[in-house]
Amino acid sequence: MSSHREAPAIAKDPVADSTDLYAFVSPDRPDTVTLIANFVPLQDPAGGPNFFEFGDDVLYQILVDNDGDGEADVWYQFRFRTEVQNPTTFLYNTGPISSLTSSTWNRRQTYSVTRVTAGDRQVLAEGLACPPCNIGPLSTPGYPGLAAQAVHQLPGGRRVFAGQRADGFYVDLGSVFDLLDLRPFQNLNIAPRPAAAGVNGLAGLNVHSIALQVPKSDLTRGGAAGTDPTSPASVIGVWTTASRQRARVWDHQNGPNVNIGPWVQVSRLGNPLINEVINPLLVKDAWNSRPPKTDASILGYVEHPELAGLLPVLYPKVFPNLAQVVKAGTARADLVAILLTGVPAGIIKGFQNLTGKVYADMLRLNCGIAPSASPSLLGLLGGDAAGFPNGRRVYDDVTTIELRAVAGATLPLVDPSFKPDAAVGAIYDAVDPAKNTPASLARTLGLTYLSSFPYLGTPYDGFDARTSTAA
Amino acid sequence: MQKITRRTFLTRTSVGVAAAGAMAAIPGASVLAATRRRGTAAPIASAVVNGPPDGSGPLVVSIADRRSGTFAILSGESEVTRHDPALVAALLRQLA
Q: In Å, what is the CA distance from B66 to each residue of A306, B63, B74, B80?
């Protein structure tokens, strides 16, 4: 999760914590776009007896800007409602759950989907069932088929799913936040130790996903077909938010609480890792509460990322050219383009995802660029224009991409005289992207994805969850 | 309450569990639900977490600055701001 527990306040509110956002032209239905917003991070599959769920008291939204002003033109709103079939038992399920209507499934959630545009509000569906969490072979046998029942077809060629999935993000979490001690390169660290293979710190963990697949014309300016990659109308900006009502009153005698007042945004996510490693602690909570159009306020942090200054210090003599850039105080116009405005036409052959002059953290997807037949985990950095930062696919190695970009890989786009350090093209954390493909991640990291909606893999079940066996 | 034993649980299941771990659905209501249900039979919403959006539920009055005389009234999904120093003063006197 590229934005999990990334700010002090939201770290204490996992149900409203947006962790990842994906936006891509659907590879199996290229006339549609798939948007996926994940919440509720770091789920241990064995986390019963009250398994993970969305918040009934949270307003989840996926927002789209299609005219480049950093403000939403299309909103998708999701509200959840929990029902308990038998309140006299402590059990989540009283027997095997074979369908979404099984009487044995005690605590279940349904949700509504509403599409909002200027002057129009349309409830696309209500009472849609989430799947149960993947508990184990007795409680949720045949789970893939069970979860598939929770893919709902909506009018207008749309599909929606909301429920537990395997977390598709991979990162060596323990090493990144241990002073960026990248295992494959820790022999070069300021405190050197023998190099070792990277690990996926999120292996075996689940997340809750809201996945939506809609025709491109649902999202683009004026309902454009979104098939011309050179057209500005093919570019959309996407972000996700979670909001809570302004006041909560706890009933100290009966336990429940009541939420009152207008909705207040408490979490926001566009590009991966912005609030995680670009914004300083000072601004993280406030940033989560503000819309993308206010992101001129973080321009300085993007132009002069702290991470760029840390790399030459933590890896002495490995990033001398980067060190010079940092010392000179050079503003990183390349990072601003990638993260806050989009890349204009003429910089990278065959690619543009510029939304305009407004600085706004949004995932910018050029809907006119077709899915790649041979996707690279490095996305655009690997010559694959269908990948991050052109939107984001579920398997894009965004940690390595952003690490390399910050280290200088993209600086030549704005300064052709700059030569990136040799290490820039080699660094990675969890897995070597040069030796892997989306399919090989199953072997190297135990990660599998689906080839169709909702694309994120089957969640890990609690019975077979990572454990230590008693001797 | 009927004692739950392995036999009573398994008699209602097809637990010749296949090597793949799949398990046939239990026909009808589960044993556990049948033996333990008491009280309300209809499903209930979990703990109420949202006040009615139409504003018919509780109200919250928020006074951020006691000296300004400005306060907010939260109801449903709405909020209105008013300026009434006398009312604010009267409310604050209730705390004395």
A: 41, 6, 17, 17
